[in-house]
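Q: My labmate handed me this sequence with no annotations at all. I'd like to see what the chain might look like in three dimensions before we decide whether it's worth expressing. Could you predict it?
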Amino acid sequence: MATGQLFSRTTQALFYNYKQLPIQRMLDFDFLCGRETPSVAGIINPGAEGFQKLFFGQEEIAIPVHSTIEAACAAHPTADVFINFASFRSAAASSMSALKQPTIRVVAIIAEGVPESDTKQLIAYARSNNKVVIGPATVGGIQAGAFKIGDTAGTIDNIIACKLYRPGSVGFVSKSGGMSNELYNTIARVTDGIYEGIAIGGDVFPGSTLSDHVLRFNNIPQVKMMVVLGELGGRDEYSLVEALKQGKVTKPVVAWVSGTCARLFKSEVQFGHAGAKSGGEMESAQAKNQALKDAGAVVPTSYEAFETAIKETFQKLVEEDKIPPVKEIKPPQIPEDLNSAIKSGKVRAPTHIISTISDDRGEEPCYAGVPMSSIVEQGYGVGDVISLLWFKRSLPRYCTHFIEICIMLCADHGPCVSGAHNTIVTARAGKDLVSSLVSGLLTIGPRFGGAIDDAARYFKDAYDRGLTPYEFVEGMKKKGIRVPGIGHRIKRGDNRDKRVELLQRFARTHFPSVKYMEYAVQVETYTLSKANNLVLNVDGAIGSLFLDLLAGSGMFTKQEIDEIVEIGYLNGLFVLARSIGLIGHTFDQKRLKQPLYRHPWEDVLYTK
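A: Here is what I predict for the chain of 608 residues:
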């Protein structure tokens, strides 16, 4: 168990199982406290990735969403608190996964009803690895003016009323989350406020105990006194009694164990929490209160006198000059959300687009964080700009040079291919540049220029599965699928596409590895044994070589490579390149002042 402060103004958390309201409340608390960075670094939503838009004061921010705990911890190594909003069915497994991550120190489990056997395993693992579990069945905890977990302390109005936006001198620990809110308010009325407050949860086996946190508070210089709210049932309070008797707690402790009314009932009563059930005289509220009092804690005669006891203890410390005055500050106003702001006339509207590749808000535009002036001054080429805007990173020069070669080689393939033909016909119909360009681009697909992604996808799958060229080709044939990247209407085995040869020569000279390209060549050798026109075409060459670029550069994970191929990056390269030629054909037709095109009759087979 940790021996000192758990949180600070720089603490960041990972939030498991996305819940908009608790996260927004955390961010609003951050803003209220004047934090510079949001306390939620990332969200974990199993099976989902992307971003969630939330507010940090007036500013809308995008918080990354990760599909696994491991991915989130790797992406946010400084986030050391795991806030688990999973249901009781999965809370234990996800909490254990978090505890096993080296970056996680504290795990807060919100769910009620977590099986006790699972909780015991979590407690054992956490204690043996010097980690902290808060909960299960907890609302969380808060360090005033610094960090809070989920819905702790309720609404912003309650947080302001309890002065939780700035630190006080009182360490507070309770089993009950609901009663924590009540005590935050009580403590704020009669003292300078909370420094840290924890609700350990109402289950029979809490991940951390009342005494665990009191002993922590005793080691925090800013905490001058402790307030403890226990309840009948269990024997957790007795560990605090022992700590007091052994002199481990040197600061004043004001304590009350609720549930004294249980003796008024003729039969045993189960209160709201799973652990709030007396199992004998020692577990009664009266016995615990007496034991705490005998050990040296300040214990009032009733809950109604609890506030007075807290006040008197605090005032004594002030009179002894052990508590310096707290400077009051005025917290900033939290902007209202859209729905509630309509009536009051204050509105903050959400954005509708997320962009991660460029930013034009500063003195100059930036591509993936690189200022435009740096791009020009460092002599970046078109390939470098593509690497920034498409891949969000600066690729090595041989990679960007390869991209540029692909663009040059694919810019045009004469006026007779379908894309150029469509553009020419449209331009001769008097349409503008954009209409003519789009007319040609719309022909790009699996039969014309759009086979690069499919070629990459199939070659990668076959190579990664260790298929021989024979197994790959014959397997595709059985499925009724033509091998993408193989075959040409004009080129033959004895008349290879010069563009393919140029790309292969460059790759063999500059790429660290060309395993996918060599596999594509082996497939071509096999297909040429079947027909002389089944050569590796430019789509297949680019597709296989781009796989080698991505894998060989060492800058992409396997997941990123699969995503690049799936999204259509490689076909994007052909679209970009061919746009150059299609624009050229548009200008050529308009410069030549060509009339409306009409297809000749003799080139049409008229039949019934």
